[in-house]
Specification:
It is built from nine helices and no strands. It has 190 residues and is mainly α. It folds into two domains: 88 residues, RNA polymerase sigma factor, region 2, helix turn helix motif (Rna Polymerase Sigma Factor, Chain: A, Orthogonal Bundle), CATH 1.10.1740.10; 93 residues, PhyR, sigma-like (SL) domain (Butyryl-CoA Dehydrogenase, subunit A, domain 3, Up-down Bundle), CATH 1.20.140.160. α2 packs across α4 and α8 crosses α9. 19% of the residues are buried.
Amino acid sequence: MNLNQPINEGEKILLATQGNKEAFSVLVEIYQARLRAFAAKYVDNSEEVFDLVQEAFLDAYTHMGKFEPEKEFGPWIRTILKNRIMNHFRSKKIRRNIQLSIVDEAILEKMSEAKDDEFCEDKVLSLKDCVSQLRKQHQDLIQWRYADKVPVKDLAYSLKQSASAISMKLMRIREILRTCMNGKLGDVKA
């Protein structure tokens, strides 16, 4: 990309929708750093970040003919990447161990509910760290109740404890997580 010559992004978008590979490569140069930064907020592994961004650009290139040039390219490509990240967590969840899958669920939930820049990445990262600091049996209980959605009554039966004892444990664990997150982020209401 020639830094001395101004880039007309709208022109490049229009050319790219008509199948111009050079115009699309300019769009890649313009947006790849921003997209990598966006993906890195949610994915720890830098190789996975690069792969996800590359896959998002491939998806965009494949569907460029469907893009409406009067719309903004940035939000469109970011949405493609967001969907790639969500699919990444869904497929990764199958392979991950029990103690971390609840974190993936929280990330997926936040990404599904939020608009592009409204992600609560600080809360998710803090939750991930706080859950990892819990004792194994507390991590398992959180997993079973909130990720696997096992009713308290069934947990009580399986663990040979009363339902009220399980409810109290869950309340205490939530309080531990809230205190931990407050220490990391300030006053957390969730």
